[in-house]
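Structure, all two chains, one model.
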Amino acid sequence: MRAVLLSLPFVLLAACGGPETSQANNAQANMSNAASPPATATASVTADAFSPVTGDEAKSVMHERHEGMEAIGKANKAIKRGLDATPADLATVRASAAKIADLSQKAAGWFHAGTGPDAGKTGAKPEIWQNTSDVAAKLAAFQKAAAAFNSAAAGNDVDATKTSFGQLGQACKACHDKYRAEMKH
Amino acid sequence: MPRQVPGGDEALSSAGEQRVWDLPTRIFHWLLAALILFSWWSVKNHHTDWHIWSGIAILTALIFRLLWGFFGSSTARFANFVRGPRAVRDDLRGDWTGIGHTPLGALSVLAMLIAVAIQVGLGLVSQDEDGIYAGPLSHLISSDASDTTRDIHELWFNVILLLIVLHLAAIAYYRLRGRHLTKPMITGKAALDPQAEAMRPGKWWAALICLAAAFAVSRWVVAGAPYV
């Protein structure tokens, strides 16, 4: 009896390994996902993306960036809820995936020089314009991940869609962790 | 968070050390401190996934402490340390004797437990700004509501910070008056009034059952609280 009681919390602890198990599943889904058709949209961000803007043009870029990022966030939240629901709400997921894929293309025009904190209230760090080649690569990776997710969501494989969504989230995070300041709005 | 102030200031040096805090209570105390620190650090450093797991670990610890407050040793039981306003008044006058939490200290223990429980509850239903991470119970409320609870979660941390500052200030205050509160929370023992009623320890198997129950409820929460 004593041994059973003693081992109880440890059994429960081991059973709590839920996240690791699901990560392993994700890794598997990931491998099978690699065989799925490649992203349709081409991802490219050129040096033009960082050409300088001033005045009203700068304000308008900053406004579009803010609204666009907020729309992407909103779409992401809808997707997460749609994928976590039982059964998954694939109609919502698909509509939001298309929206993000579209906005990801527009995002290449959101980081012109002169739209940093000097120009107004923004979470965009000045480091963006000191590392434009890195930011361009990350933007391109985001576009690629958004297109791949849009393709995955078009299918009916919920697990593969979840994996692809996870990769899209990592693409968002890669840029935000480095180039976004904490901002209250 | 729990503090210990024995009565009879003069009796201290001569008296031997007595047990005051049992092992589960001490582990809970230091684990909570470490997890709060880790929760703060992880979210400030973009490790939102670790932050969520840390919150779930705090949930498990809180459930354990709640149960231990009913089935634990005498100094851990709410019924023994949560007292009315008269006891708090006596405490402020310096008339209180006993072992374990003082009546005033007990209020601070309760405030900390409730504040942390609110913080965990807010976190469980929140989602991050980008829609990448969400607490396991966020699906129970709307997306807009999950954004609002995240904002409150962020503000509520200031309440916890305030309680931590008060807690550390109280320890410093007692230290200046020659009373060490930190060491008993490590060793479990303190020089106490020999006249005071000794701590009645809890049962080891009761601790295991409380722990198992805490894990079971946490697992259910992690699973998104099915069947509600």
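The radius of gyration of chain A is 20 Å.
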